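Incident review: delayed structure delivery

Summary: a single-chain prediction request sat in the queue longer than the usual turnaround. Root cause was a stuck worker, restarted by the on-call engineer. No data loss occurred. The affected request and its eventual output are reproduced below so the record is complete for anyone auditing the incident later.

Affected input:
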Amino acid sequence: MADDREPPLTVRVLIDARSAASPERTGVGVYTAALLERLPVVDPHTTYLAWYLHARMLLGEPSPLRHSTGVSRRVLPLPARAFEPLLRRGIPRMEWMVRFDVLFAPNFVPLPTRARPVVLTVHDLGFRRFPDSAPASTRAWLEGFDASLRRAAAILAVSQATKRDLEELFDVGPDRIRVTPLGVDRRVFRRAGDEAVRAVTDRLGVDRPYLLSLGGLEPRKNLPRLVEAWQRLPDDVRPGLVIAGSNVGWSPEGRDLLARALARLPNPLRRRVVVPGYVHGSDRVALLSGAAALAYPSIYEGFGLPVLEAMATGTPVVTSTGSSLPEVAGEAAVLVDPLSSESIADGLERVLRDGALRDRLVQAGFVRAAAYSWDDTARSTAEVFREVAEGRQISRRG
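Output delivered after worker restart:
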């Protein structure tokens, strides 16, 4: 008997991969790179195209983006500084250069297009919740965000907290939002051995024990209060402090706020704080593995990926009661008031003094991290691409 079912539609998804091609990836870059790796695995019937800029390609420099089987690259050998102002003006439109069915914007604002449906990801709405923390350059970049939300065929939110913010701040209907939580690669983020930890801490000049802070140096990471809370710890329990993260170009005042907070410390304490800059790969895993705790009292997060990374490496977590962080951490972290340095210090002291609490947090953290996988993120994302593409292509057929 003949099979009358129609064959699956061939779908071509163009992905803005610029954040993944950055040498110092933020959470958005980690998210985009993970999807580029896992989407072709969980959805092999879709054609995925990664578009990004790489000016040094003409000089023979290899691509900063690791090759992913099943993803075709569309690389423009032009410098971002010269080309991105054109993109903000809406040129060139992507359909002039690449054939695709769906355009995926993993970083809020889509590449220019008129003729194709757009799926965009909203990671957080800190620029709207805390406008004073968003400099003019960020506000200019996000000028078209309202219009992009209205035009998007589907909107991905990385947490229920971000979904609520979208509904409240932009009046986006809940039926247009799909929550697709982030994941953690437990092949990478697993506890490193003491030798690996020692090699990294020795190279970076970090004395053990130490608390670790991870993330961009921006105001909402709450680093001045973390420094104040660390200073409040009793002398007999206070470990060193490592604040790892890069300067954030769109929010340079974060670096200045941290510098002023460190300058207020007495010299003996200041010498116990290490600011190594951006750390990635095996260095990041080793620093997490060797830390007495991850100190992550952020004022606002759309998700909070370092929380899962710490849990996957067996490191206790102290994080905040704000935004998405209780949602991500569940019962596997100590939650503190991010607006109170006293509350932060109390949470840190509890974890540092109470061995039974640390053991409970480590075991609960392993379980919590195991519940978040990039494969799940990719599957949910691929489902949205296909729904959007099929809706468009079916309407074409009439």
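Verification: The chain is about 40% helix and 15% strand.
Action items: add queue-age alerting; document worker restart procedure.
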